[in-house]
Structure formats: structure tokens, C-alpha cells
Design brief:
Elements lengths: L7 H52 L7 H11 L6 E7 L4 E3 L4 H4 L2 H5 L9 E7 L2 E11 L5 E10 H52 L15 H51 L3 H31 L8 E4 H12 L6 E4 L6 E4 L1 H18 L5 E8 L4 E8 L6 H5 L19 H11 L3 E6 L5 E8 L10 E4 L1
Parallel strand pairs: 7-9
Antiparallel strand pairs: 1-2, 1-5, 3-4, 4-5, 6-8, 7-13, 9-10, 10-12, 11-12
Helix pairs in contact: 1-5, 5-6, 6-7, 7-11, 9-11
Length: 474
């Protein structure tokens, strides 16, 4: 049989309870000890005041009045607390006491004071019958210094003990209430907190089982668990988007590769049935090679899109946009007989992956070349914005694209308005992936040249002193 394991809330509440009990026990002990010392000191002062009051009155008694007569009158008129008594033992005479002191007067220690008065003050504890007394005694002397007897004030110890006991019980009760309240509050808070954490665990398990739409949705909470829930939902959104994109990619890849494989297989089967004439073999081999080249280009671009999902897809280095665009223009001018233009380029250095950025823009240039004819214009422009972003765009004077076609132009394998059938439909998707990997975006709009404008917006900085517009024909 497995031992019962307490929950986290119960364990933490128990630990807190033990700590509170230890701390409050020490505190209660200190409070009771301090109260006991204070009560004893207060009792001692009260008893000493009674003794001083009698001694002072005795020295000032009327002339001719005996000390015994004065003592009787003083004890009859002196108002004492219920638990206090006054005992006076005159040297060689009787012993007198206030109301309630009869048992105390019969004790041998008090009776001995009449025969042997105290020479110095003392504090002692005596038991008379069933009552325990705390006494403070001082010698009684005449103005000349002669010993006249002993005066003692006493208080019942039981009352002092009861007072101390009440304070100890009150302190212990308050400490117990504090422990119970602290443990209960801790348990309730932990239960609420752990329920929310359990939701995170359960939701993570559901996500792991394939329920990609599960979310915590703890909106409006700003504590640490709320921030954890928000971060968890963000991660779940990204995970869901990545898995959905992966599934779509696999579906698109299987669809796109099926056609060239079917074409190649069909021609090979036809070749097998029709014979081995050199001309047929040559044509079939060329066609199969074309289809394989198309598949290789498709696979390379798909690998590029797959790597775009990785966090280290881009390696940022400082890129001088003026030099970058100038080199790029020198490269594209030989691609086709077009009117090539480059707009104002700001004096700006951005952190970007130069190779991937160059490849994305060459994709845009290739699309623009396919969409235009000899003599048409293709322009490269770089525009900084107020939000510390910079936009790199390719404009062309081709036929353009309808609004409906532009809406899906950046999707994988989407080829709206394509001028030929040799493309893969992945060029603009790669452009968008590169832009998003840099923390930016891509967009397709109408061009000022009358055709299409495709732009990439990436983080940049404020530009200074734009370069002059240049144009070239190739």
C-alpha cells in the first residue's frame, strides 16, 4: 500500500503552521515572562507603599499614644485591596494584622518577629493553611533608631498566578488564532494558485494530445501566474501556427510533387511501350530532366521555407543599404532588357542577413522580369518610415494584378497572374518569410509605374542624406 502523499498546498501550509507555532510560542513565552516581571515589580511597589505608609504614620502619631493603640487604629481604618494584608509584629508584644491575615499571623515565622525583629528588609514566600503569600517585610524603628518591631505587607500568590495564567491563556489563544488564520489563508491562497497551475498542466497535456485550440485565456491578471498564462497562450498560439503551417506545407508539397513525378513516370512508361528510338529516348530524357530540375528547385525553396521557421534562420550583420543596393543593381541589370531604376537610398546601416535579403529581392526582380517585356521599367526603392522601419520595394510597369489576386499572392504555391508555367509559386512566400524573420512584413500593392509593387519592411533607423536617383538600360 502506497503511503498517502499530501498535496503541495497541504505540505506548504503545514510547514508554515510549524514555523508560526515556533515563532508565536517564543513570542508568547516572552510576553508572559515580561508580564510576570512587570506584575511582580508592581506588586512589590504596592506592598512597599503600604509599609512606608505605616512607618511614616507611626512616626507621626500623637504624643502619648502607644504604638500598639496606633497600630490597632491604623489597621481598622486602612483600606487595602482584597488580596493584600498588613502584618505588624511589635518587639516584645503582640502581633497585629489586617482583615484576612489570621492564618498568616499564626505562622511561626511571623510570630518569631515579635521576639526577634528584622534588622534589614526581606522578601519571602510563606504558606499559611492552603494559601501561599508573597511578603515584603521591613524593620520598624523609632526616630532614634531603636528597633520597634517588624512590618510586613503580603499578597496572595494565587491571585498573582491567576493573573499570569489569564495573560498566558490570552496570549496562547491569540497565537493559536493567528496560527489557524495564517495556515488557513496560506492553504486557500495556495489552493487557488495551484488550481491555476493545474490548469496550465492540464492544458499543456491537451495540447500534447493534439487539441491545438486549447488556451488558458486568463485575461486581466497581472500577477506572476497570470503572466505565465499569457506567455503559455502565446507559446501555444505559435506552436499551433507552426504545426498548422507544417501540415499545410506537407499537404502542399505532396500536391506539388505529385504532378512532376506523375509526368516523369508517364513518359517513362510510354517510352517503355513504344520502343527505344534514339529520338524518343532523347526527348523523354530531356522532359524527365526538366521535371527533376523543377522538383529540385521546388525542394530547395521548400527547405528555405522550412528553415525560416527556425529561430536562427537569419544571421544579422551591419548592412550599408547604399552599397547593398548599388551592388544589387549592378547584378540585375544583365538579367533582361529593361529600364532599370533605383530611387533615393538613405545613408542607413541596418542589422540584417545580407545574403537572405539579397535572395529575397532577387526573387522579386525575377517575378518583375517575368511580368514585363523589353523596354518596360523595373525600379528598386528604399524608404525609411517614422516608426524606425525601412521599406525595400520593387515596382514594375507590367500588367499588374487584381485586388483579389493580390490577397493570396504571398501564399505558398499561389501564382495569380503568372506569365509562364515555369515558376514554383514559392518566390513571394520566401520573400514574406525573410521579411518576418527580420521582424518585418511583406505586402503586394499597385505600383506608381502602373504594374505591381512588392515591398519588404524591416526594422531600420532614421535615414540621412538620400542618394540621387539613377537609371540604366540593359
Amino acid at each position: 500500500m502506497k503511503p498517502v502523499r499530501w498535496g503541495t498546498a497541504a505540505r506548504l501550509a503545514t510547514i508554515l503552521g510549524v514555523i508560526l507555532v515556533a515563532v508565536l510560542s517564543l513570542t508568547t513565552f516572552g510576553v508572559v515572562r515580561a508580564y510576570t516581571s512587570q506584575l511582580q515589580a508592581s506588586t512589590t511597589r504596592s506592598l512597599a507603599d503600604e509599609l512606608q505608609a505605616f512607618a511614616g504614620s507611626a512616626r507621626q502619631r500623637p504624643n502619648g499614644q502607644s504604638l500598639a493603640a496606633f497600630t490597632r487604629g491604623f489597621l481598622q481604618t486602612r483600606a487595602l485591596d482584597d488580596n493584600e494584608v498588613l502584618v505588624i509584629a511589635l518587639a516584645g508584644r503582640s502581633t497585629f494584622g489586617s482583615s484576612g491575615s489570621a492564618e498568616l499571623l499564626r505562622t511561626p515565622h511571623v510570630r518569631a518577629w515579635s521576639l526577634h525583629p528584622l534588622s534589614t528588609s526581606e522578601r519571602l514566600t510563606l504558606t499559611a493553611g492552603k494559601t501561599s503569600w508573597e511578603l515584603v517585610a521591613i524593620p520598624l524603628r523609632s526616630p532614634s533608631g531603636a528597633s520597634l518591631g517588624t512590618v510586613a505587607a503580603a499578597v496572595r500568590s494565587s491571585q498573582v498566578d491567576r493573573d499570569i495564567g489569564r495573560v498566558a491563556a490570552l496570549a496562547a489563544g491569540e497565537a493559536g488564532i493567528a496560527v489557524l488564520a495564517g495556515v488557513a489563508a496560506c492553504w486557500l491562497v495556495l489552493r487557488r494558485l495551484l488550481k491555476r497551475i493545474h490548469r496550465v498542466t492540464a492544458t499543456a497535456a491537451e495540447l500534447g494530445s493534439g487539441a491545438l485550440d486549447r488556451r488558458l485565456r486568463e485575461n486581466g491578471t497581472t500577477d506572476e501566474v497570470g503572466q505565465l498564462a499569457v506567455a503559455f497562450d502565446t507559446m501555444a498560439d505559435q506552436l499551433s501556427a507552426a504545426l498548422t503551417a507544417q501540415r499545410r506545407l506537407l499537404s502542399d508539397v505532396s500536391h506539388q510533387l505529385r504532378t512532376p513525378l506523375t509526368v516523369a513516370r508517364g513518359h517513362l512508361e510510354v517510352l517503355e511501350r513504344t520502343g527505344t528510338r534514339p529520338r524518343d529516348v532523347h526527348e523523354t530524357v530531356e522532359l524527365v530532366i526538366d521535371e527533376l530540375d523543377h522538383m529540385r528547385a521546388l525542394v530547395e525553396q521548400l527547405l528555405m521555407l522550412g528553415h525560416a521557421l527556425e529561430p536562427d534562420f537569419v544571421t544579422r550583420v551591419p548592412v550599408d543599404l547604399r552599397s547593398f543596393c548599388a551592388d544589387l543593381m549592378e547584378t540585375v541589370k544583365v538579367l533582361a532588357k529593361r529600364r532599370w531604376e533605383i530611387g533615393d537610398v538613405p545613408d542607413l546601416v541596418v542589422a540584417a542577413d545580407a545574403a537572405k535579403l539579397r535572395g529575397a529581392i532577387l526573387n522579386l526582380v525575377d517575378n518583375a522580369v517575368r511580368a514585363t517585356r523589353d523596354g518596360d521599367t523595373i525600379a528598386l526603392s528604399v524608404t525609411p518610415t517614422r516608426e524606425d522601419l525601412v521599406t525595400l520595394a520593387i515596382d514594375d510597369s507590367g500588367p499588374g494584378m487584381s485586388a483579389d489576386a493580390r490577397a493570396s499572392a504571398l501564399d505558398r504555391f499561389s501564382r495569380p497572374g503568372a506569365a509562364d508555367s515555369s515558376g514554383t509559386g514559392l518566390g513571394l512566400a520566401i520573400v514574406r518569410a525573410v521579411a518576418e524573420a527580420h521582424g518585418g512584413s511583406a505586402a503586394v500593392t499597385d505600383s506608381r509605374l502602373g504594374g505591381l509593387r512588392v515591398e519588404m519592411t524591416i526594422p531600420g533607423a532614421k535615414a540621412t542624406e538620400p542618394a540621387k536617383t539613377t537609371s540604366a538600360r540593359a
